[in-house]
Design a protein that fits this description.
Shape: globular
Strand content: 15-25%
Helix content: 40-55%
Radius of gyration: 17 Å
Strand order of the largest sheet: 1-2-3-4-5-6-7-8
Number of strands: 8
Number of helices: 10
């Protein structure tokens, strides 16, 4: 059994409503020693903290996902009327909780028609908050590499670019800035050549494993609901890419996660 630390999960998703607590109770028996559950708005951030209070191995990241700007059912709109600044101000006191270990999930997403200026302002606000709190930031970057990298270079936070989809050169550059690079199930997909090259080029001490569950289950479970235990497949694949034993990958990535999140 491997030592698994999932640095990016969404157990507050409705996809877990039927068996959430059964699953979370079983994960330690499958080797899971840590999970960072990521909020995407005020309500989900509070829900992440509530879960973290119930499970010793689970921690919370608190923040506003760029998609929440346009999602009708996000508390950004249902509770705060689209005023993300007010929502982030409401999230700020939640970081006093000892299980709140990171700022995020936040970042830029140019795949969806989300107003760009609002996204940039929201991401900058998270970056400033992470520096103020001296906490790592969990960065979402979808089709927005240039702007994400520019802001990370400007602010120099500690944290992770999750579900990395850039080039090997980009990954090494970010690692040299002090960022960690997160790889999930998509690394195992046949079309993930860029991610594989990045995973091979990085120093092992800068790599994290994640799921983004319930999404992006790795091969051979692709298309099914994902959970943290399935990182076993991703880590074994990464071990093949790097030519090492799987235990080397799982030991290193668990230690990397503990170091970054201070747990």
């Amino acid at each position: 059994m491997y030592s698994i630390f999932d640095t990016h999960a969404h157990y507050t998703s409705h996809q877990f409503d039927d068996d959430r607590h059964t699953l979370l109770s079983e994960l330690p028996g499958r080797g899971v020693v840590g999970v960072v559950d990521c909020g995407t708005d005020y309500d989900s951030s509070r829900a992440c903290l509530a879960l973290a209070e119930q499970y010793p191995y689970l921690y919370a990241a608190l923040g506003i996902h760029p998609e929440s700007i346009i999602e009708e059912d996000a508390s950004t709109n249902t509770r705060f009327g689209g005023d993300w600044a007010a929502e982030l101000a409401a999230i700020r006191p939640l970081f006093d909780h000892p299980k709140a270990v990171a700022v995020g999930e936040c970042g830029l997403d140019y795949h969806w028609p989300i107003p760009k200026e609002a996204q940039l302002a929201l991401f900058e606000a998270h970056l400033k908050l992470a520096l103020e709190l001296d906490k790592p930031i969990i960065v979402h970057d979808r089709q927005a590499h240039a702007d994400v990298y520019a802001l990370l270079k400007q602010y120099r936070p500690k944290g992770v670019v999750h579900c990395f989809s850039g080039s090997a050169e980009d990954a090494v550059m970010l690692a040299q800035q002090g960022m960690y690079i997160g790889f999930g199930g998509a690394l195992t997909f046949k079309g993930a050549k860029r991610a594989v090259k990045a995973a091979a080029a990085l120093p092992l001490e800068r790599i994290l494993l994640e799921t983004d569950c319930p999404y992006m289950a790795p091969e051979p479970c692709r298309g099914k609901r994902c959970d943290s235990g399935l990182i076993a497949h991703t880590g074994e694949f990464l071990a093949e890419v790097r030519g090492v034993a799987p235990d080397v990958i799982f030991t290193a990535t668990t230690e990397n996660a503990k170091r970054l999140f201070g747990v």
